[in-house]
Every structure is written in C-alpha cells, then in structure tokens.
Amino acid sequence: MKAFVFPGQGAQFVGMGKELYDNLPLAKELFEQANSILGFRITDIMFNGTDEELKQTKVTQPAIFLHSVILAKSLGTAFAPDMVAGHSLGEFSALVAAGALSFEEGLTLVSKRAMAMQKACEITPSTMAAIIGLDDKTVETVCSSIDDVVVPANYNCPGQLVISGSMAGIDKACEKLTEAGAKRALKLKVGGAFHSPLMEPARIELEAAIQAAKFEKPVCPVYQNVDAKPYTNPEEIKTNLIAQLTSPVRWTQIVQNMIADGATSFTELGPGNVLCGLIKKVSRDTACEAKQSL
Predict the structure, then answer these.
(1) Set 93, 166, 195, 247: catalytic member
(2) Choice among 68, 88, 126, 164 that is catalytic
(3) 195 annotated active-site
(4) Which residues contact 43 (CB under 8 A, 6 or more apart)?
C-alpha cells in the first residue's frame, strides 16, 4: 500500500517549486492563482527571494503548502494514495491532495493559520527545543514537573522529541532534561511555541475559518496529528484540525500506525527530505522516497 506524506515548516529553501512552474502549464496556473489569492507574489520569494524573506511565517507556510500540493496535482494518475499524512502544516497539504479540501480553501486556511500563529507568537515570547536521546516518558515527566508553560510538541521519531513553551519554561526544561541524560537539548530558531497552550489565541481565530470551510470525504484515510488515527469523516477531520494548533504532533505514532495498517512504501512530496529521515528512524526497513519535482 502506498502512503504519501507532506512536510511542515522548516523544510523550505529558495528555489523550491521553480522547476514545476517553469515546465508544467498546470503548475504555473496554480502558482499564479495562489499569487492572486494571497495578494502578493509568493512565487517571487519562493524562487528568487532570500532565506530571511522565506522564513517569515506568513510566507513559509503557504510556500511549503503550495510546493507540496502542486507537486501532488502535477503527478496526475501517479498520485494514487492508499493513505496520507502531513507533519503539522503538512496536514493541510495532505487534506487538499486527498480531496478533503479544495486548493483555494486549503491555501486560504493555511494563510490564515500563518497570520494567526504569528499574532499568537507576538503576545507571549516563546520558543521550542529539540530533545535528542531521551525516551518520550522521561521528557513528558520532566515537562510536567516545571511550573512554567512547557509541553511535548512534536513526537518526531524514537529519541527525538521537540518541546514547546515559554522562554523560562524551555530554559528550565533544557537544563533538567540534560541532567536526566539527554544527548542534546537544542533551542530551535522558531518564532514561538507551536503546538502548545500558548497557541490558544491562534486556535480560536482559526476555528471559525475551519468551521466555515467546505470539507469533503477524502479519497483515502488521512492520519491526523492529534491522535495519529485515520479519518475520512469530514466533521471529525475538522474537529481534529482545530485541535491541532494546541496539541502535539504525533508523527512517530502516525508512521507506526500507517505501517501497521499496511503501508509498504512512503513518498514525501514537497521541499526537503526530513520526513523520510524520520520514517527511517521509526522503521529502518521501510522504503521512503522524497520528491521535489516530477
């Protein structure tokens, strides 16, 4: 069974998607449609901008979504998933690729999500840190013992868990987790505490937009971040998507569940190959191919 997966924020690079734009009329049409929807020429930043310009949340999230979704649509009949999933932002790409959301609705939601997250970041200074070489249980226990906001945010693969919270909470947690035996506790260069309670203002803002959007039954099950389970019911998909901003991304469990449900090969669509790397760490024998163009 074929599984297709879609990356999240951090996978972007200057030049992403340009090959599709230059060589495929369908891709060019969709990119130009995106420029109109967003109200600025995101393609100029994606293809010829600077790393700094591309790193702005309002640019990064739509850019990764566009590269992933337009690549899936450009594959035509070669995109025949038995199951899909996306990491954080990538869940929106997965939903559009699988037909649960239209291209226009998906892009509009991703743009609103980026703006809402940016605003939430400005309310409370906050950050994230990658904890390497500790089991999940130890990280969870240490986080819950700290009196500032700090929670597990991304269960990426065994031995790699990203935590999220206030500046003080992250500093305390990094110190305690290093003492507990973490090989590394590395603060990330991110704008805020994604997938933590500090994203509540963004969740409230995005909830109204998600509720108003038209969701259809996808062509295959979508394994969602909040509980790593497969969904095809549009109302359940909506509920999970709303909860996603303040809940952890359970990527390790998603990959394990997809394999348990029969996935024999994974294809990562979009910039980078981060997810293939994580999938290999979850299951060394599972095939994964990263595609950035046709």
Answers:
(1) 195
(2) 88
(3) yes
(4) 17, 21, 31, 32, 34, 35
Average pLDDT for 137-147: 96
How far apart CA 159 and CA 181 sit, in angstroms, is: 12
For the record, the structure tokens of 287 come out as: 């095939």
Q: Per residue in 29-39, pLDDT tens? A: 999 999 999 99
| CA separation for the pair 282, 251 (Å, rounded) | 10
In this predicted model, what pLDDT tens digit does every residue of 151-167 receive, in sequence order? 999 999 999 999 999 99
pTM for the whole structure: 0.95
For tokens 């108003």, name the residue. 212
87 has catalytic annotation = no
